[in-house]
Protein 1
Amino acid sequence: MPRTPTPTRPRPRTLLIIGGAEDKMGRALVLRRFVRLAGGQKSRIVIIPTASSFVDEVVAAYTAVFTRLRAGADIQVVHAPSRAAAHDPELVARIGNATGVFFSGGSQLKLSQYYVGTPVGDAIHAAYQAGTVIAGTSAGASIMSRFMISLGDEGLTPRQRASQLTAGLGLLENVIIDQHFDQRGRYGRLMSLVANSPNLIGIGIDENTATEIHDERTMTVLGAGGVFVIDARAAVTDAPDARRGAPLLVSGAVVHSLPMGATFDLDAARLIDFVERHPDKDVGGASARERATPGGPGDALRPAST
């Protein structure tokens, strides 16, 4: 009898969202992960440097680091310096041929103005749905969501109307992404935005840190810093009544601090698993489940009783 062919498993949709200032000179853990996800030596990477004011320098820098990390030799550039330029069929074709697309940092407003709702933007959506890995750092991180932070005051205290949302690419729904999170003190502005739009989950990503998100749901953290997730769906707030610039009441929001090794369910807003990954300690990579089992490998992580 003829053998029934095994159905091909669809490739997961993958986003790699980077908080900015990622290591390019050393181990380059985050960028190395992007190259691997894109296919390694068989990858076909497209760099989108449009957010930057120094396009040539950005292209040269990322081409060099991707080459050092043994990406495929076919590294292309898609740069639309205007909305009209994003209708170019050649740029659309380059996106369609890519296995990995990388947005540089700079001004996310440029990305919103030049790509959202254009043929190149549509090609990015189609490529993502087909399994092309989409990555972005700093401004390139913010553009991933349906709504992105385009302006906002920095600081720890959430204040009313201190930030502004603009349309992003919409590869990731129901979240707001902020970057350079710890380094630029952006806790307050992200909290204020989720207080005003409690259906949105806030994700704040530190520098040299990334979230790898599969099928818009499962998120893992890698890199040197942490990722904050703010869930204000059950919070009490005075956002409808507070005057502009006033400190906001936000009571009952749930905040998750996720270091490297954390796996998080964005739909359920809960931790799935945690594998300890501290470079200064050899802990054997015990998961949260293992650490909770007496006599398991995680016992090595517990301090001795005193």
Protein 2
Amino acid sequence: MNEPNPPRPASALDRRSFLAVTATGALAAAAAPALRAAAAAVPTAPAVARAPAPFELPALPYADNALDPVISAQTISFHYGKHHRAYLDNMNKMVAGSDLEKATLEQVVAAAAAGGADKSALFNNAAQAWNHTFYWNSLTPGGGGKPEGELLAKLEASFGSFDKWKEEFAAAAKTQFGSGWAWLVQDGAALKVVKTANAETPLTKGMKPLLTLDVWEHAYYLDWQNRRPDYVAAAIDKLLNWKFAAANLAKA
């Protein structure tokens, strides 16, 4: 059965809300233990959803054809309009009536991660909802190139040079077996490249994401088929949003 076309995304996202740091002291004393633990687990994560459930699909920060020719409007329509929406819809059903119903998305992710196998379905959907919103903002029309200022200095200090960082990030994205993500993260004073499988996210590993690249097949297959390395190279060179990464950088 044909699904209705998703609505055309708005031209901008509320970046102040997106970039706001998750507060650890805002939970009321009577909050559920799962929420208190979740808040402590992600104290510096860039927030993507601060309103309580039901969570809504955030608007894209650009038009659906703005990433052409690297990522087509057709890919956006399926990836954003169907996959991303489905993760949010599934999560909303799972948290309805629970002690997570009024949590932030970061808190749902952390609580589900701490819940073990019984919470695996919730984690997969909540983490993918968060990862995807972070991914859309990690890209920008006319992106790529080099960052500036403190972020460039930290990349050079952590990897030896920007080109070395670029090689390591591309390798992580290309060699992630099966579905997953490549990330630039801040881990203490150092910047690192990590890769995660499926819905896994640095949020639950004590690291602060700065930007990410989605290497699930639905992120690139309509445009690039099995040529993941070409998609990775094009996204790095033409789409990475260095201003977004710099805004996520924790100041010393």
Protein 3
Amino acid sequence: MRAELSFFVGALGLVALTMVVYRAIPEGRSGAQDKTGRGGSFVLGFWVRNWFYWFIRPVIRVSLALRLSPLFYNILAVVFGLGSLVFFARGQLPTAGWMILLSGFADVMDGEVARGRGLANKSGAFLDSTLDRFSEFAAFIGMTLFFGSGIRAVAVLLAFGGSMMVSYTRARGESLGVLCKKGLMQRAERMLLLGVGGILDPTVSAALGRDTGFVLLIVVVVIAVGTVATSIYRTLWISRELQKR
């Protein structure tokens, strides 16, 4: 078994164990409503998101005890994003996948630290959202360099454009007074798919008798379709809401 796959299986085992523990406590048995106060949807359901924020509480507490700033995690997320660019470009897909997952984790942590320290404000929210786009942009640049030209590069371009449009339609809607978090392929879902796809690609692609990058390309196509569909749906939904007003 490849080293990256062994580590991934170990991580899945830890996830499964902590989910069992969470399900056994009153907090985890009390339904699948959103307990985070963040609203929106998540493809794996609210229970999984509730579990995740419960799972990272110790890291949040340590960060608060060390008085780490939200900016620390903002910068860390960008560093991991740039790391994904480098490793994708070099064809080291599993490492690039872990870089994406770590970038997403750092992105979550900056918001939690900001709220925990009472530092949440509009300036921080703007910086967070903007740096998220830079991190995601870096990952897609790396994938473009890995795939090269041709139809595969077009798929990456569509996935990136769709991802930006999902974010843009929400931001533009909010600027006009309409909040829309509907649809799939929001940032958390995109990063999870790209991260896991990169990690598993060499093993699964080889098992299917395909060249390295086959599984990642499928993930990119799924993201492209999902993000374009979501951005169109949000465009229509926000337009109708504005017309009602």
Protein 4
Amino acid sequence: MTAPLAASTVASTAASTAAGHARTALSVNVNKVALVRNTRHLGIPSVTRAALLCLQAGAQGITIHPRPDERHIRASDVAELAALMQQWPAAEFNIEGNPTQNLMDFIRQTRPHQATFVPDSEDQFTSDHGWTFPQDAERLRPLIAECKQLGVRVSLFMDPIPEQMAAAKAVGADRVELYTEPYAAAWGTPEHAEQLRIYAAAAQAALSAGLQVNAGHDLNRDNLPAFVAQVPGLAEVSIGHALIADALELGYAETVRAYQAAIDAGMAARV
């Protein structure tokens, strides 16, 4: 039996909805839990246990990025997490990666709620750029179509370039995930306000094109409230590195609640 959402999470969600805004969802990326586990052969820390604790604390989704070299998430993790998510029908399972590598097999096998296409090379250290149009259009179009035939929503990892959003919609995407490292790098500097303006403009262009808007990369408890407050229509944030680092000190449950509070602070500051 699944645990109900914490009362505070339910209350804050209701308050946000009542205020006229759909609440920005938190999807926890558990890749870094797998990275630590893979340094030994003991099976700890458990990726599935970490996901369960985050869901019990009120996270609205779980994200994984299974790379071909299995440096963190393994094929067995994908299957185990898919089984776990069957027990949490209200939560979203998001699998991200490059659809020209190993991603599509996982999509076909597990049919997650969302597939996030990321243009990573196989040896890339971490995601550091989005898709580009028209260059990537033809190879993405049939893969997006296949996902949609499987009932899987598709989000494209994109740089915050307003002119690219209509092209993402034209190839069949349902959402874009705005790559937020430039925003995070500018946090606390004179460039912060300009970066917020850039992301707000990109999000508005996406909304105008008929896309929903996700965001992720280096978001944390400090920089998240301003982003949620200023970027329109933000449906979901996917957070891994900073959240798991915080969980080493605070524990999964308290950390998820802290990130939910950061989202709520941003929601409350929306005009």
